[in-house]
Amino acid sequence: MLDGLFIGVDNVLANTPKLTEGETIEQKIERIVHNGEPIKDGAPIVFTERKDGVIPAYNPRTDRFEVAVEAMDKVTKSHLAKRQENLERLHGKNEPKTGETVAKGGENQQS
User: Fold this and answer.
1) Cα(4)–Cα(16) distance, rounded to whole angstroms?
2) From CA 63, how far away is CA 57, in angstroms rounded?
3) Distance between CA atoms of 68 and 64, rounded to whole angstroms?
4) 28, burial (CB in 10 Å: exposed 0-12, middle 13-18, buried 19+)
5) pTM above 0.90, yes or no
6) What distance in Å separates the CA atoms of residue 80 and residue 72, rounded to the nearest whole number?
7) pLDDT in tens, 20-54
8) Cα–Cα dist 44/111, whole Å
9) Buried-exposed string 35-56: b where 16+ CB fall within 10 A, e elsewhere
10) CB contact burial 62-81 (16+ within 10 A = b; e otherwise)
11) Are 108 and 100 in contact (CB under 8 A)?
């Protein structure tokens, strides 16, 4: 009965990744300067001119929910436009538009 418990503990210890010591900033700078390597890691440049204001994506005061809602509105409008194009292509351009009804005579009337 105890063997099962110890097997589980052994499996956990066997799957533990081995730790390695990282490179200090001094070692990294020495390596880059000595080998002439380009600097690959860094932060994106988020600076904007004062006249342009702050980019909403990097502004901590921006309500990100509002930014997401605006983006989803654009996506929804795009989907609706594509849907309308597909309907026009399938049914022809004589289909009634939103807010119009077709009279029995076949002419569109404003409702």
Assistant:
1) 19
2) 10
3) 6
4) middle
5) no
6) 12
7) 788 898 998 999 899 988 888 777 777 788 888 88
8) 54
9) eeeeeeeeeeeeeeeeeeeeee
10) eeeeeeeeeeeeeeeeeeee
11) yes
pLDDT category at 4 given cuts 50, 70, 90 is very low
CB 97 within 8 A of CB 89: no
Amino acid at 36: G
Task: State what percent of residues in the chain have pLDDT above 90.
Answer: 23
Q: Which two tokens stand for residue 11?
A: 């499996």
Q: Provide the token pair at 39.
A: 């600097």
Sequence-separated (6 or more) residues with CB below 8 Å from residue 97: 108
The DSSP H or E segment spanning 62 is: none
Helix (H) or strand (E) holding 8: helix 2-14
DSSP element (H, E) containing 9: helix 2-14
C-beta of residue 109 within 8 angstroms of C-beta of residue 101 = yes
